[in-house]
Each structure stands twice: as C-alpha cells, then as structure tokens.
Design brief:
This protein has about 290 residues and is an alpha/beta fold. It is built from 11 helices and 6 strands. Helix 2 (about 20-35) crosses helix 3 and helix 5 packs across helix 6 (about 125-135).
C-alpha cells in the first residue's frame, strides 16, 4: 500500500510538467539564494490537485542532484491534526533515526543518543525531551526533567530548531512541509520559530497548503507567496495529450470519446491529488 503520493505514482510516473516554468524558475532561484547564505521561505498555495506536489518534487529532484545539500521532507495528515509535532515525529522516525519495527525501545534509544550527539546537544537534558516526543521509555541513566508541559514543549521546539540550524551551518537545507491545511498547532509554532530565523540560516522552508488555510507569516523580506492557478485550456490539452500518449491506446480512446476537460482534471487529480500520506526522501541526503 502506498504511503504517499510519491509512492502512489512511483510505478507510473508523474504528470508531464506543462506551463509551470515560471514557478519552477522562482523555486530554483530561491534555492540559489539559500546556497549563497540567505535563507528563504516559500508559501505555495493552490486547490487540491492543481500541481503543488509536482512542483515540490521538481525542486526536490533538483536538490537531490547536488552533492552538498540536506533534504528534510515532512507532510501533515488529516488523521493527526491533534497529534503535536506529528510531521516532525514522522521525519525523525523514518528519515533521521530510521527506526525499524522489530527494534526494541532500548535499541531505538541508543539510536536517538547517537543522533543527538552529532549535534553537540547535552544528552541529560535533551534525551528525555526526545524520548517523550517519540514515546520511548527512559532507562535508569536518565532522570525525568522537572518541567511543566509548556516548558517541555518550548525546550523541545528549541532543540529541534537547534538541530536544523546546525545542519544548515554544514550544508544548505531544503525543509519541505506539505499540506499545512492539516497542520497541528505545535508544528505551526515550530514553523513560526523557523520563519523567524529569517535570512540568517541557509534554509529554504517550502510550505504547501490549500486556499482555505491562512499562514500567520506575512510582510517578511525573505518570504515569497506563490499561488498556483489552473492551466489555460491549450496547456491543459497539451498535458492530457502527453499522458494519453504515454498510457497507451486504451487511454487515448477514452479521451477521444469526449469529456476532455473532465478527463484532464481527473488525470491531474489521479496522480497529484493532495492526500494524507507521508513520503520518504526521494534522494539527496535525508535529514534531520
């Protein structure tokens, strides 16, 4: 079973990219600025199936082709809107720590310790925070922290931000957060801390969402807002023709039978509908 749109289209490929040259150029330009040391935030808005994930994939492939870059792919889910930091937890477990189902809690805790040591974080203070976040039991080596829930949350957010900033000090980072319309409040708080870093860190934070979500960040010099609109009829026809040619006679026959606009929209939705899955890093170096 596919866990994401990336996996769902993996065997058949994405829709041909048509009419998005300007948007791609802008994303690549923002990434170039990040590599030069000026952090950027891009907010990519558009209705379901309009092509947001397709553009994200193009940029991810661009970054994956570079030897000196980090890629941190996150995705919100409608099933975990009330789970604090769900996209970050998934990123940690799946990409950074690579937890395996058969591993014991003790094995996972050892992985966590090794991960945190890389970033120079004090284990006595940080391991209990991350163990709570990842639902791992602590061993006798660690004492519970005497913190209120709010204090624990704030220290966890700061530790996560510290890791990301130290990554960016080594190599530029593409931090992707898709489907913000399903974001939980704590993840949104973390993103606000990240946005507040401004151009001081080599991070491109790329966030996608549907039009019914209103991001709380405006008026920043390092922030770019992009809205995807429907393709003009000529370009939509070109896209459906390319898909028909790739998918064979049966598909071309279905298109020839009429209903071009409806079928074209269905093709777009079928391979690029905003969904509830979580994706794996397509290449480059996974992080955190």
């Amino acid at each position: 079973m596919a866990r994401s749109r990336l996996e769902a289209v993996g065997s058949t490929g994405w829709t041909p990219l048509v009419g998005r040259e300007q948007e791609i150029g802008l994303l690549v330009e923002r990434w170039a600025q990040v590599k030069e040391g000026v952090g950027q935030v891009v907010l990519l808005s558009g209705e379901a199936g309009i092509g947001k994930s397709r553009l994200v994939q193009v940029l991810q492939e661009h970054v994956a082709a570079e030897p000196q870059a980090w890629l941190t792919p996150c995705q919100c889910s409608p099933y975990y809107r009330n789970t604090a930091l769900y996209p970050i937890i998934d990123l940690l477990e799946r990409v950074a720590l690579r937890f395996e189902r058969e591993e014991s809690p003790q094995q996972k805790l050892r992985k966590l310790e090794g991960f945190l040591v890389q970033y120079g974080l004090p284990l006595a203070q940080v391991v209990p925070l991350f163990a709570t976040l990842l639902s791992l039991p602590l061993t006798a080596d660690y004492a519970p922290l005497p913190l209120s829930p709010e204090q624990q949350k704030q220290q966890t957010l700061q530790a996560l931000l510290t890791i990301l900033l130290r990554l960016a000090a080594q190599q530029p980072v593409l931090f992707v957060m898709e489907d913000l319309h399903w974001v939980d409040p704590t993840t949104l708080e973390f993103l606000s801390l990240l946005v507040d870093q401004g151009p001081t860190a080599r991070i491109l934070a790329l966030c996608t969402f549907r039009p019914d979500f209103s991001p709380p960040w405006t008026g920043r010099s390092h922030l770019t807002q992009m809205t995807l609109h429907r393709l003009p009829r000529q370009q939509a026809t070109e896209m459906t023709d390319r898909v028909a040619q790739r998918q064979g006679p049966a598909t071309r026959g279905r298109r020839a039978g009429g209903g071009q606009d409806r079928w074209g929209a269905a093709v777009c939705r079928g391979v690029d509908e905003d969904g509830a899955g979580v994706r794996a890093a397509p290449g480059a170096r996974g992080a955190l």
